[in-house]
Amino acid sequence: MSFAGILRGWISKRSFPDPRQADAEGLLAYGGDLHPQRVLAAYAQGIFPWPGHADWPVLWFSPDPRMVMLPAALHVGNSLRKVVQKQRFEVRLDTAFAAVIRACAMVPRPQQDGTWITPAMVDAYCKLHDLGFAHSAEAWEDGELVGGLYGVSLGAVFFGESMFAWRPDASKVAFVHLVQQLQRWQFHLVDCQVYTEHLARFGAVLWRRERFLGALERALQEPTRRGRWVLESGGESTDTPAP
Fold first, then answer.
1. Which of 58, 69, 159, 190 is the most buried (most CB within 10 A)?
2. In this structure, which CATH number among 3.30.470.30, 3.40.640.10, 3.30.70.3550, 2.60.40.10 belongs to the domain 3-61?
3. How many C-alpha atoms does 105 have within 13 Å on its Cβ side?
4. Strand order in the sheet with 59-61
5. Do residues 202 and 170 touch, judged by C-beta distance below 8 A?
6. Domain ranges in the chain?
């Protein structure tokens, strides 16, 4: 059986309500576990987990509108482009996944008390990484991990989750390299989940849920690039204009 067939089986066994039934805040359901099959089945249906606190049940979201980036539409501003070109940071993929997600859980965030990346979330996504579905992009300086991000990949979609930076621009540089790599691999889209000005500056835009679900269905027809990712040399320009 193909992986797409296996995924359909997981979806049928780990069923969720129709994502169109989510409330105005995007909340669709609560409860259940973070078993890898359940989490992957959720992403395949345009749903993602977003726990509030360690003692809360898992909350499952499908927001409308949805923040989406087309890899070819990546926009890099002049100042960041200069940082990328100086090669201050060494960017790697999938060499320190656990360290990246734990750093994302630690970084202070404006108007947030604590972190939504609970120990259960860390454990679940580390399992997904071990299975070849979750990936990290990392910025290193003098042998030290100083920024990065992580997410999940299915078909030709990368579902971004969180990022951190211990040095200015470190996570931004890692993001630029990752999106350029996704473009080389002909990924259809990057799911950014919800609007932020930070992502909008990179060229991400808001889509209605229905449009996102249609694009997701098409992208899941492509093979999943499972296993450890390696950054390839591509030579793309970093000044792709915003749409």
1. 190
2. 3.30.70.3550
3. 20
4. 27-30, 59-61, 48-49
5. no
6. 3-61, 66-219
Tokens describing residue 94: 């999938």
The dotted CATH code for 66-219 is: 3.40.630.70
3-class SS letters over the chain = CCHHHHHHHHHHHCCCCCHHHCCCCCEEEECCCCCHHHHHHHHHCCCEECCCCCCCCCEEECCCCEEEECHHHCCCCHHHHHHHHHCCCEEEECCCHHHHHHHHHHCCCCCCCCCCCCHHHHHHHHHHHHCCCEEEEEEEECCEEEEEEEEEEECCEEEEEEEEECCCCHHHHHHHHHHHHHHHCCCCEEEEECCCHHHHHCCCEEECHHHHHHHHHHHCCCCCCCCCCCCCCCCCCCCCCCC
Specify the long-range contacts of residues 108-114, CB closer than 8 Å, at least 24 apart: 114/53
Query: What pLDDT does 239 receive?
Result: 41
Structural tokens at position 124? 């679940």
Predicted local distance difference test score (pLDDT) of residue 116: 73
Number of Cβ within 10 Å of residue 235's Cβ equals: 6
- Residues 142-180 have pLDDT tens digits of 999 999 999 999 999 999 999 999 999 999 999 999 999
